[in-house]
């Protein structure tokens, strides 16, 4: 039995004690909350959320509660945080048009262990400022210069051994960032937090070496290829107030970008195109299937 599941049992016992305390020791006024359940104290409904995720049916966690409580809103508890889930187009409109009015961006506090001072976990005003600086390299005029550099190492780490070690640490972060936030030796969360610290130290070392090299070459010739990566860009960028990012902020935001850019829909599309190009027989089968679909679709339009 893994340590993760052993501690689920431990937390279950703690939850029993917490239920008794909550039932007999709380005499305060009742709050008006949406229908639903917070599940077990401390654990909440995380186990059910994880179970549906492992089965490849995460939507069942939502739909089951929509049917049981309310199709528009219900309460739950995930990752140690009491949460309200809003469902449907009207809920989306409310969230995306009421920023800093009725709602404010918030992420579980345990994510700070991974992404520190990045705009992902910073307070709202600071996050807004930092986001503008970090995403400034996404402007077309900057990206046009980055295209020819995409085959170079992400953060100027050119040693193959260091790259492989960082990849191992990064995989630990990916496997543990959205696990139950129990920081105890042996759990995935514990390994992921420590792996994030290793990557952050490596990034800070890269930033420090870049600064020292810049000081030595002050007034001399600067290697544009080496200075053309994202770390160099974040070292130079300044906000409207003239302030830049600290070394820790740069490292935290680079780590965030690494995590955010992993397993995205664009990554899936890229791998699809790659394998279709490498496997002609698969490409022909996909092409044949699409041709049949287009024929049926055109016949449907013409018959209408």
TrEMBL record:
Keyword terms of this UniProt record: Heme, Iron, Membrane, Metal-binding, Monooxygenase, Oxidoreductase, Transmembrane, Transmembrane helix
Alphabetical GO biological process terms: sterol metabolic process
Pfam families, A to Z: p450
InterPro entries named in the record: Cyt_P450, Cyt_P450_sf
Transmembrane regions: 6-24
GO molecular-function terms, A-Z: heme binding; iron ion binding; monooxygenase activity; oxidoreductase activity, acting on paired donors, with incorporation or reduction of molecular oxygen
Gene3D superfamilies: Cytochrome P450
Keyword Transmembrane (UniProt): yes
Family per record: Belongs to the cytochrome P450 family.
Protein name in UniProt: Cytochrome P450
Organism: Cinnamomum micranthum f. kanehirae
